[in-house]
Amino acid sequence: MVFSNHVEYYAFKATMYEQIANYYKYTHPELYVTYYYKHFEYVQKLTNVLNHTKSPSIQISNSLTESSYIRVLHASPDFPPIDLFIDGIETFKMINYKNATQYAHLSPDHHSLDVYLTEDRSNPIISVILPVEPNVYYTVAAAGKNESLTLLPYIDNTFLPNNESKARFLHLTSELPALDLAVKDGDVVFGNISFSELSDYLPLSPMTVDLEVRISGTKIVVLSLPNLRFEANKIYHLILTGTTEGERSLEAIIIN
């Protein structure tokens, strides 16, 4: 879910916490009080924003320019370091497996992306055309195995209220079926995420939590993720990569 301004975000949070509070109202009164106060907090924030907006039609621009941004994630366990060329120009060099580059500026247009092995630039191992919209952040993931290598573009939402956090889950292990990301021995956080699918963002308060990746709809755990720390003012992308057999085993990598 992408929020274009504070009004949308605060309204979403207020509604979400109200629903959670109502869920616990008669079964766990202490949790009901906790979540109701969170609901009330975001109602107040929403009211403050609306009261300080003079125009009845709220229009908040995130950028005064038309520049967009791109970064590359190497998530293919079968490939050594790679280079990325944009429109024939070397843009990112020697991207190692499980690493992501920094963002680079990119103009809104249709751009050619060519991926080469760092050690062999005779021919690209994959080439695609990426349509780029204005004022958008993109993460392009190199994923899949051998001949099934693919470049997968995802749009990043960089909006984050002060002292908040948010996270989402990306499934990039082609040999596994749909997955759930869940609290250890508890509820599902992101459910039924198939290969190449990316979850919506989940707003979070700063916390430390034990998570686990399961085969969707089951209790079968394929990877445990203990003591994950979500800090304030950070955006987290939890990405499952690796293989079920071989040297590069299943791992969850985290990029911000």
The secondary structure category is alpha+beta
Report the sheet-strand fraction: 35-45%
Biggest sheet layout: 4 strands, mixed
Name of the level-1 CATH class of the largest domain: Mainly Beta
Strand order of the largest sheet: 4-1-7-8
Description:
With 256 residues, the protein is of the alpha+beta class. It folds into three domains: 6-51; 68-156, Immunoglobulin-like (Sandwich), CATH 2.60.40; 165-255, Immunoglobulin-like. It has helices at 6-24, 29-51; strands at 68-74, 82-86, 89-95, 104-106, 109-117, 126-132, 137-143, 150-156, 165-171, 179-183, 188-193, 202-204, 207-215, 221-230, 234-241, 251-255. The strands form four sheets. A four-stranded mixed β-sheet has the order 4-1-7-8, with no helix packed on it. A four-stranded antiparallel β-sheet has the order 3-2-5-6, with no helix packed on it. The chain is flat and about 65 Å long. The relative contact order is 0.13. Mean pLDDT is 85; it is low at 54-65.
